[in-house]
Amino acid sequence: MTLSTRKKTKFIHEGPYVAEVDVEVIVEENEWAPYLSLEDAYKLDDMREALRRGDLQTAMKHARVYVLQPVDLSAS
Predict the structure, then answer these.
(1) What is the pLDDT, as a whole number, of residue 32?
(2) Is residue 50 a contact partner of residue 58, using CB atoms and an 8 Å limit?
(3) DSSP 16
(4) Are 18 and 59 in contact (CB under 8 A)?
(5) Is 32:4 a contact under the CB 8 Å cutoff?
(6) What percent of the chain has pLDDT over 90?
(7) I need a surface site. Which of 3, 48, 68, 70 has the fewest CB within 10 A?
């Protein structure tokens, strides 16, 4: 069985925020692949919870965080 990893960016959207989180995806030759390590899965869960609470300081320790705002095309 061949096991390898590759870097991937996951996006988490909560309320007006989006976090861009770098994780490693584990690639194997089976029907479950690709998948995240338990550590990266917990990191994504923690990131989602921090964004939900509005705790941007914590979120920004492990991700790039952006604020979404609507685009107003009626002004043009």
Answers:
(1) 74
(2) yes
(3) T
(4) no
(5) no
(6) 68
(7) 70
Q: What is the pLDDT of residues 36-46, one digit of tens each?
A: 999 999 999 99
Q: How many CB atoms lie within 10 A of CB 48?
A: 16
Residues β-bridged to residue 20? 11, 64
**Which run of H or of E encompasses 35?**
strand 35-36
DSSP single-letter state for residue 73 = G
For residue 6, give the 3-state DSSP assignment.
strand
How far apart (Å, rounded) are the C-alpha atoms in residues 19 and 50?
A: 10
Structure-block tokens of residue 15: 């309320």
| DSSP structure class, residue 31 | T
pLDDT digits (tens, 9 = 90+) for 3-37: 788 999 999 999 999 999 999 998 888 777 788 99
